[in-house]
Amino acid sequence: MAFCAIVGCKKRDIWDDVYLDSDSISTDTTYQTSTPVFNNSTSIIHDTVTIAPIKPKYAIVWAIIAPNSDSTLTKENISRYQSIGSDVIEMTDISEDAKYKKMDEFERTLYKEGAVPVGMNIRKRKILVFDSYAEASKQREEFIK
Predict the structure, then answer these.
(1) DSSP codes joined into one string, 85-137
(2) Which of 86, 73, 88 is nearest to 120 (CA)?
(3) Are 137 and 88 in contact (CB under 8 A)?
(4) For the chain, how many structural domains are there in total?
(5) Model's pTM, two decimal places?
(6) I need a surface site. Which of 44, 103, 105, 130 has the fewest CB within 10 A?
(7) Is the pLDDT of residue 38 over 60?
């Protein structure tokens, strides 16, 4: 029995050296440095750029209706021209495509509503774009006169 107690005490001393001397164990810090650090995501949300709303532009479409018999539009035959302007149109897209779409829509409307008399055609059309509604409306008044 005394032998078991001595051997048992001896084994314990070996394990005590391995497990109880944890102060001398070096820890590998590579795992700790490679783990991602999570920031507070609310700071990212506050730093995002806000998109300002697009300020609309205002346009009018202007068309010249002339007799089919006039091969070219000149100042001499201006008395036979008819000038017509659209209502003021609000536009957010003022690309070339958008402008031509508005001119095509206006032209179709004129033909559809019978604004172009028999024997006449739309010979020229133009779209004018302004920064304010007032500017567009004032220019429209000039066409009406």
Answers:
(1) EPPPEEES--SHHHHHHHHHHHHHHHHHTT-S-TTEEEEEEEEEEESSHHHHH
(2) 73
(3) yes
(4) 1
(5) 0.58
(6) 44
(7) no
SS3 (DSSP) at 10: helix
Residue 30 covered by a domain: no
Q: Would you say residue 40 lies in a domain?
A: no
43 domain-assigned: no
- According to DSSP, the β-strands at 120-130 and 57-67 are antiparallel
CA angle 111, 116, 120 (to 5 degrees): 120
Q: Which residues share a beta bridge with 67?
A: 120
Domain residue limits at 99: 60-144
Residues 126 and 72 sit within 8 Å (Cβ to Cβ): no
Confidence at residue 48, expressed as pLDDT on a 0 to 100 scale? 59
74: phi then psi, degrees, rounded to nearest 5:
-130, 170
Query: For residue 38, is it within any domain?
Result: no
Other C-beta atoms within 10 Å of 107: how many?
16
Give the end-to-end CA distance of the chain in Å, rounded to a whole number: 128
Residue 78 clears pLDDT 90, i.e. is over it: no
Asked if 133 and 58 count as a contact pair (C-beta separation under 8 A), the reply is: yes
- What does each C-alpha distance from 118 to 34, 93, 114 come to in angstroms? 82, 34, 9
- Give the amino acid at 19: Y
